[in-house]
Amino acid sequence: MFQAPSAFQRAPLPPATRESEPRREQTLTAIAPRPAAGPSARGAAAPAPAAVKKRDPYFDNVKYLAIVLVAVAHAWEPVMDGSRATRALYMIVYTFHMPAFILISGYFSRSFDMTPSKVKRLITSVAVPYVLFETAYSLFKRYADDAPDMAISLIDPFFLTWFLIALFVWRVTTPIWRTLRHPLPVALAIAMLASISPDIGDDLDLQRVLQFLPFFVLGLLMKPEHFQLVRRREVRLLSLPLFAGALLFAYWIAPRMQLGWLYRANSAQEMDAPWWSGAVMTLAMFGCALALTIGFLAWVPGRARWFTALGAGTICGYLLHGFLIKGAEYAGLFDRYTWLSDPVGLVVVSLTAAVAVTLMCTPLVGRALKWATEPDMKWAFRKDSAGR
Fold this sequence. Notes:
The protein is mainly α. The protein is 58% helix and 0% strand. It is built from 17 helices and no strands. It starts with 56 loop residues before the first helix and ends in a 15-residue tail after the last helix. The relative contact order is 0.18.
């Protein structure tokens, strides 16, 4: 899809005003300094400065810590075989890291509508990066893994690019979910139906799009006061036995449970399970993911930390860390250095992934990749669409 900060303090969230709305999923924007007011040259009072949209450090902290967990979990996949404890940790992280990321994405999509300016932003910040990185990952596998038959297919997402096409679909349907009276039950029903529908196929990774949909819809329904409740001291304390119990349960069930239930990429029948188990597991996994996500969000610090600014660059960290993981896999490093599966090796792998994705989230990388993650593309749009 995530390293515990040194201290955890609660800070109030901003009121739900238009100033607190993100410009675009709070992705690559920065906190702009507010100009100081002062007298003009004639001694008259200067006009009041325009309101400045500030980033909430809490959500940047959430996104950074979530992307670290995504990278670390991906790094565990090639080396966790034979380690029941690592598999249990992997299952816990996979239960909530993408649901947390998707929920936050839904929260910052609340104001999306089909106005030309927002459609343009959706195309440049989601659709275009999907096309570029889907192509890049396919070519990387073709040449780095000596797989000349690897096709470039924009309808069959490879590895982690599924999230971009899913975000595109979810955000386009946002007006629908904002119109329905009971959107979450409808989204859960759709996810349950998808989990028992083997004929959906792999196009656009629709199984994941539909089975993860409830978390995006839940994010659309979230309000600032809900995050205030999640960050209460009582919730943080309750989350400790929650994670302890989850770890014990995951350790017990690790050899017995298929990891496919966590990936949500297949129907129950495709995993050789009874059809009805898809609906049951959809509800069970939603409940588990929601509980662990709340526990995770409760411990995220609300004030600025050393890593807060990195939350603005998580799109780069997400899209780039896959090249590191797949590159090591294609080079046979995990097969050659079997000690990486040992406890010390797992620590090394985890730290390497965490440090690497942290560097990938830095502003320097963000500026270097802006042409791919946030292209201007004025040439592609009608002039009268700007500002509408």
